[in-house]
Amino acid sequence: MKSKEVSLDAALSHVKDGMTIMIGGFLDLNAPLAAIDRLVELGVKDLTLIAAVNAYPGGGFGIGKLIENHQVKKYIGSHIGTCPAAVEQYKNGELEVEFYPQGTVIEKIRAGGAGLGGILTPTGVGTLMEEGKQKVTVDGRVYLVETPLKADVAIIRGYKADKVGNILYRGTPNSNPIMALAADYVIAEVDYVVEAGEIEPDRVGTPGILVDAVVRGYGEEKTREIFRDLWTKNKKLA
Q1: What is the 3-class SS of the chain, one letter each residue?
Q2: What is the pLDDT of residues 142-171, one digit of tens each?
C-alpha cells in the first residue's frame, strides 16, 4: 500500500481560509503542537475551530496561539475560560462561541462520524442550553436533540503511526480517536513513523482507513522539553 507519510506543509495545504477544523487534545495536552504552530505561521484565517476544551491555561500555547493571532472566527467547545485572548475577543464581539457541555461535544462529534442525525441528551434541559432546540420525551424523560458536528479537516495526535496510517496512542488519547471519524480529511501528527505491520493490530487506536496523512511532529524528546519548560514557567509565575 502507498505510504501516507507526507510533509507537514503538504498535509496542511488542505486547510483553507474559512474551513471548519477539529483539533484533538485536552487543554493542549496530546494536541498536535507542530501542526498548530505551523498553521499560525501559515496564517490561515476565518477558521471555525472545534475542540473539546480550549487552550492550556494562560494562553501563548497550542490552540491559544491560533486565537491570539485572530485566525479563528468561531469556536465550538465546552469553555474558553483558560484562554485570555478568547475571552477578550468574545467580549469584543470578535469571536463567535458555541458552548456545549463537554460530554455533549464529544457525542456530537461521534454522531457526525457515525452518520447519525443527532443525539438525545438530558444534559441542559431546563437551562439556557435548551433554547431553540427540539425536545423529545422518551419513557417520560425529556431530552434535547443535539445535531452532529463534522469538519473539513481534523488534526489529531498519536504516539506512533505506521506508513499506512494506523495510529497507536499512549496514555489518554483524549478526543483524538473520535475526531478521526468526523472529518473529510484527517491529519495524524505522531512522534514516530514505522513500517506497516510493526504496530500490533490489537494496539491500533485509529485504523489507517480513517487517516489521510501522517506527519512527524516535534518528536517525543522535544515535546517533553516543551512541556517541561511550560510547567516550570507556570510554577515560577505562581
Answers
A1: CCCCECCHHHHHCCCCCCCEEEECCECCECCCHHHHHHHHHHCCCCEEEECCCCCCCCCCCCHHHHHHCCCEEEEEECCCCCCHHHHHHHHCCCCEEEECCHHHHHHHHHHHHHCCCCEEECCCCCCHHHCCCCEEEECCEEEEEECCCCEEEEEEECCEEECCCCEECCCCCCCHHHHCCCEEEEEEEECEEECCCCCCHHHCCECHHHCCEEEECCCHHHHHHHHHHHHHHHHHHC
A2: 999 999 999 999 999 999 999 999 999 999
